[in-house]
Write a structure and sequence with these properties.
The structure holds 3 protein chains of 3 kinds.
Chain A (H helix, E strand, L loop, with lengths): L1 E6 L2 E6 L6 H8 L18 E4 L2 E4 L12 E3 L11 H8 L9 H16 L18 H7 L10 H13 L2 H7 L1
Parallel strand pairs in A: 1-5
Antiparallel strand pairs in A: 1-2, 3-4, 3-5
Chain B lengths: L4 E3 L4 H7 L5 E4 L5 H6 L7 E4 L9 E4 L2 E5 L4 H7 L5 H8 L4 H4 L4 H7 L6 H8 L2 E4 L3 E3 H4 E3 L2 E2 L7 E6 L4 E8 L6 E10 L2 E7 L7 E2 L1 H9 L24 H18 L2
Parallel strand pairs in B: 1-3, 2-3
Antiparallel strand pairs in B: 4-5, 5-10, 6-7, 6-10, 8-9, 11-12, 12-13, 13-14
Helix pairs in contact in B: 3-4
Chain C lengths: L11 H4 L17 E7 L5 E7 L1 H5 L3 E5 L24 E2 L5 E7 L2 H8 L3 E6 L6 H6 L9 E5 L2 H7 L2 E9 L11 E6 L5 E5 L4 H12 L6 E5 L14 H14 L3 E4 L2 H7 L5 E10 L5 E13 L5 H10 L10 E9 L13 H19 L3 H8 L72 H11 L2 H14 L3 E14 L8 E8 L5 E5 L8 H13 L6 E3 L2 E2 L14 H28 L7 E3 L2 E4 L2 E4 H10 L5 E7 L4 E3 L4 E3 L3 E14 L5 E10 L7 H20 L30 E6 L24 H12 L14 H13 L1
Parallel strand pairs in C: 1-12, 10-11, 14-15, 18-19, 28-29
Antiparallel strand pairs in C: 1-5, 2-4, 2-6, 3-5, 7-15, 8-13, 9-10, 9-12, 11-20, 13-14, 16-27, 17-18, 17-24, 21-22, 22-23, 25-26, 27-28
Helix pairs in contact in C: 6-7, 9-10, 10-11, 10-18, 14-15, 15-16, 17-18
The chains are: A alpha+beta, B alpha+beta, C alpha+beta.
Chain lengths: 174, 262, 811
Amino acid sequence: MNTNLTVNGRPHALDLDTRVTLLDALRDQLKLTGSKKGCDHGQCGACTVLVNGQRINACLSLAVMHDGDEITTVEGLSSDGRSPLQAAFVRHDGMQCGYCTPGQLCSATAVLDEIARGWPSHVSADLEGPVELTREELAERMSGNICRCSCYPGISKAILSVAEDGTVHREAAE
Amino acid sequence: MYAFDIERPTTIADAVAALKADEAQPLSGGQTLIPTLKARLAAPSKLISLSGISDMIGLSDEGGALRIGGATKHDTVAKEAGATHPGLAGLAARIGDPAVRHRGTIGGSIANNDPAACYPSAALAHGATIVTDRRDIAADDFFTGLFDTALEDGEIVTAVRFPRPEASNYQKFEQPASRFAMVGVFVAKFADGVRVAVTGAGEDGVFRWTEAETALSSSFTPGAVEGLSVSADGLISDLHGSAAYRAHLIKVMTKRAVAAAE
Amino acid sequence: MSVGKPLPHDTAPLHVTGAARYVDDIPAPANTLHLAFGLSTVARGVLNGVDLTKVRAAPGVVAVMCADDLPFANDVSPSIHDEPLLATDRVHFVGQPVFLVVATSHLAARKAARLATFDITEETPILTVDEALAADSRFEDGPVIWSKGAAADAIARAPHRVEGTMEVGGQEHFYLEGQAALALPQDGGEMVVHSSTQHPTEIQHKVAEALGLPMHAVRVEMRRMGGGFGGKESQGNALAVACSVAARATGRPCRMRYDRDDDMVITGKRHDLRIDYRAGFDDLGRLTGVDFRHLMRCGWSQDLSLPVADRAMLHADNAYLLDHVRIESHRLKTNTCSATAFRGFGGPQGMVGIERVMDHVAHALGLDPLKVRRANYYTDMAEDATEGGPSAPPQRSLGSSPPPEDISGKKKEADLTSRGGPDELNRVVVAEASGQTTPYGMAVTDFILNAMTERLADQSDYAARRAKVADWNATQPVLKRGIALTPVKFGISFTLTHLNQAGALVHVYQDGSVQVNHGGTEMGQGLYQKVAQVAAQAFGVGMEVVKVTATDTSKVPNTSATAASSGSDLNGMAVKIACDTIRDRIAACLAELHQVAPDTVVFAGGEVTVGGDTISFARAAQLTYESRVSLSATGYYKTPGLAWDRKRGQGRPFFYFAHGAACTEVVIDTLTGEYRILRTDILHDVGESLNPALDIGQIEGGYVQGAGWLTTEELVWDDRGRLRTHAPSTYKIPACGDRPEVFNVALWDGANREETIYRSKAVGEPPFMLGISALMALSDAVAACGPGYPALDAPATPERVLAAVDRVRRG
């Protein structure tokens, strides 16, 4: 099935088997192996990518359903690997084995965007007005991304440091 | 996964027509269907995507009731239903994780009727109406058993209509790994009485706890169900929890829901 | 100075851009084939045959192999050759590989593998501890018993006694990167294997045997794993061997990875066990005698179970001086997946037993459990002992003749580099230790937990918070709080003594860049970075000058697994020795050119100062090269002072002990059994830290993983031996919200008294056992509900907590 995907800003015209998941299309066809196959059942978050700015599990989505979509993977989060969030993950050592890191980064990128847009979650204290990225708020929003090394303190520090820098708002404004 | 074709109709009529093909199956958000296809428990020859049908997406007011299109994502319900249906919005906000909420849909959840899914309890507790391409079905008649509904072959849930409750709340005791409900209780108070629906616990799927409804209809307080007890008969006993534990949790979650209802 | 700096992981910039490659990310040639196993659906039975007609006819299938099709050894066991790659005449658990499908895609291989029809005469499986005991189904002839003093008499004479039973569950590794391998056939039948393994030499050995080749014809490379936790010490053998035999048969590259469900069903997990205990004690809670019985479920093959069960026995004392103790360990053989190494390697299972006893004793006496724990502690080492070197090694003598080979049928070599390997080579004469000794007769000379506990109790405000918890519990009917402070003393060294060795290969190039190779593997623990820091320190250069390359059996041979927390201790030292050799050569060369003494040459800040001149390190390397002096060296290290007689359970198996203590406060909901960890304070002993950032990461991660083992991570098998929790949707791993709400981690500031690499201490496993404080805090909270003792089993799921609440209320 002919499918047009824009991945990390580059258009791709692919002829895909309908059974191919978005994750397999990224890894096998486009050789973008940053997105990982942790469980292949949408439970671990290692395959998280952004589709039109929203995060989804690439393993739970058929590639052909994304005809015309804009997809961002960890490889496309920045041109130089130094987005504020990427830099913060390095600075705060928000990883051990690194296998969940691409998914954590894509998810965290979306979290910062959601916060900047003022989207509350079910743990938000105030459903109106700006959302504060509390510990609980972050835990809820990152709940779909498992780190078996349990490097959660480092991951949280990295995300919070970017949120506190106000980088969120700059990114959202761009 | 076996080979299959995909069609992406843009109208309900086209979707219904496409579903007349042999072994065609609707694909909504895919958060349940795709894992099922991977495990090859389902082998459709054709998938009819419902995600491109604009008439099935979004929330609207319909004579005081809230109409939610069948292809509306959980995330949208979480964000937009709160003003009139806080319990429903809270339920949607707690389904799975954020990535799942960006793909999964209300119609998919209702039509699948997983015994541990959250939405069926909301539909049943609201006395909602399930709108399909061909008829309206009362929630009380819709959920007929484990993964079983009143839907006919090729029939699509195009929308769900939720009357506005005076107060409502959903409390879920999560199965911690999947975040599905091990016990989920939806309580909705209306002028003519209270409805209590329980998901995650019943061997036949979602059910109403009528004793609690009677008690809460005369006094909408957590204490009203204090004297009641839930029988473990007919409840699920599995690796995540025994029937007795679930029976115990039903009462606890009901009291919590009543206390939190707004 | 690079050692001691809190540097992030060396490849962090690659991880954040998705550029860090794991085995399944390595580009392979287009004609690469993909493998899948056909798995037994029966837990126990006679394998009469398999109908593979449909499998062979399935689309994409290139070859199908059964046991009879294997050219040489059919063996992936790391110990006694009881684990065939493919089942022969019997099947032993649900998920045992029976045949191998080689196909053009991963999906085609998996689909075809399901099309077989098995002819198996089913037998009643032995699944539980009780069934195994009843059938006397076990490894070794009978239980292993180690003792000190006269426990039974001491317990009988004690003023007070408690006894009980504790069920402790296993644990799935759930390394986020599943098992994976890629085999690339080379000229002349040689094989290059990429394997996600903690033990490249074991892979090399197993592949060589399976291909009928000497080890020199097999090269194994490992750059990084997406987590290991012990699950990749022996469990990768099957995939690497399967890929290699398939690559040999087809002449094409072959790759294999387990899908997550298969991975969970096939591979071994942490040993679950039942602990029976009896203890006698005085009015202050001091144990006068204690008796343990460990009933460990080892699964169908021996794998590493014997040393795991040994280590459980070796940690049955944890931090406590026991004068009269008896430990009986049963290694039970069951028709379940073969339990294997998992962070702590039995240590956690042994330790949780004595911590349960301390908790039970305190409850019986109505005392603060911390008081009871401290009353039983070993005595701290003298203040000035830090400066002392290693104590004199006990005498030892090597046996004069090699042990008889344990061979049945086909020629198989002993797995010398495996922890499951034979230990007869170490003919040990163990000297009698003096002073305070462990139950296995090792002198405890480096104990520091009295001082550490004092400080942690102070920093965590333990006493005041314990009082507040009591106040809270007196007024709150539904939510009950609990607090517990528990210690960890963990022995560092492989208990198979000869594994305590390591090699390194270091090159300095003419541009002054340094390439380091060592036998350790990187799985996220930061070993490569620590080793790079050691090398940079040795040459006085910046970190950017040093590159640690993928672990490769052709660069450093005969390596031990990266396990037993030993990675930095062993490989760091080997690298330092190699670097020092080269540095000394450079110094000697430059000293000669300048006619000064070699020891006046200084390496610092990327420069070398000699005879008043300062030149760049690169220039120094060039001069050395031009003087025709080698800039390449190996380093070799072996841990001194070890002497362990496993059969008698006597000696010094450990070079030193690593310590830690954790204080955890929890709240439980007595209506549902739900709970949360409110606050955790940790003080942990890593000696002089090589890298505080990496060490703190290990401590935080270890604690959360340890708490997960004892709280949420529950494995369930059904009565036909099928694992029901075989996916992340049914097996609960700690997520972001499960970490403690307040989480304070501090490093103890003392140096290792033994001469380890820069006086640091191992950190991989010990923090895992800090998680025991979470279980004990839950016990404390449940105990607040009534007069009875909670006797919480693990994992303490909400349902178990609720049941315990009900139990203590009934008294």
